[in-house]
Design a protein that fits this description.
Order of helices and strands: HEEEHEEHHEEHHEHEEEE
Structural class: alpha+beta
CATH architecture: Alpha-Beta Complex
Helix content: 25-40%
Largest sheet: 5 strands, antiparallel
């Protein structure tokens, strides 16, 4: 996903994200996009990855400068995170809370059940991921991560299985939507109507080379948290909500 051929292919398929909007002459504004997710602690809440997030914030500024703010809406560094398991969002979430007044309480309780099943995975060393480089997704730009060993990858998959194969969660409509492609999002695409594919893919290739020229970076996964979001700029939680220490 970080090779030049991947950039050339992917830029042909990028689409405007519904998560942000921008009127002519104005800054990017975030659109409502509510839901729940299981993530690593976000931004400043993740004391294990402060130096990496500082580096990513600098790199994000460079990416936005090279790609152009007409095309890319950067997200705040305070929301940098790794998604461990997507749960529910936008229209599906709105429908669930409208149809079931107890949905959110049930979701929180059942995620706690799933985390409880994962206790054999706890009290070990944090899971280590290597930051491989820049990737272009359909509606976003991110840096991709790869586990440094098979056991690390297996522990993440077991956590995801405990969530997605929980029959009580499935009963309220939570199901796996995506394969696990570990990444940290830097920004979302805006108006793509004027994109020139070859030029943009070359920009991404050059940006990736600049990341690779830096010292190799490691991302530590030490904690999984249930968090709620109203949009893509802020993920929050009550201290009583479920979490899991790796």
């Amino acid at each position: 996903m970080t090779l030049p051929d991947a950039y050339r292919s992917q830029v042909q398929h990028i689409q405007e994200s519904p998560k942000f909007k921008r009127l002519p002459g104005q800054n990017w504004q975030v659109n409502p996009f509510p839901g729940y997710t299981v993530v690593t602690p976000c931004g400043a809440d993740d004391q294990e990855n402060v130096s990496l997030f500082d580096r990513l914030a600098e790199y994000q500024s460079l990416v936005a400068q090279k790609v152009g703010l007409d095309l890319l809406a950067p997200i705040p560094a305070k929301s940098f995170h790794l998604t461990l398991a997507d749960l529910i969002w936008d229209g599906t979430y709105r429908h669930a809370v409208r149809e079931n007044p107890e949905f959110e309480e049930q979701l929180r309780d059942r995620i706690a059940q799933s985390f409880q099943q994962c206790q054999p995975l706890s009290h070990r060393d944090p899971i280590q991921f290597q930051v491989l480089g820049l990737i272009v997704m359909t509606r976003a730009v991110a840096v991709c991560l790869a586990p440094t060993d098979e056991e690390s990858y297996d522990r993440i998959l077991k956590l995801r299985r405990a969530i997605y194969q929980n029959p009580d969660l499935m009963a309220i409509g939570i199901e796996q939507q995506y394969y696990f492609t570990p990444h940290i999002t830097l920004g979302y695409f805006g108006d793509t109507s004027q994109v020139e594919g070859d030029g943009l893919s070359q920009i991404f290739d050059e940006l990736n080379k600049q990341w690779l020229e830096q010292e190799s970076q490691t991302f530590l996964v030490h904690r999984a948290e249930l968090r709620k979001f109203d949009d893509m700029t802020h993920y929050y939680r009550d201290p009583s909500w479920a979490s899991f220490e790796f």
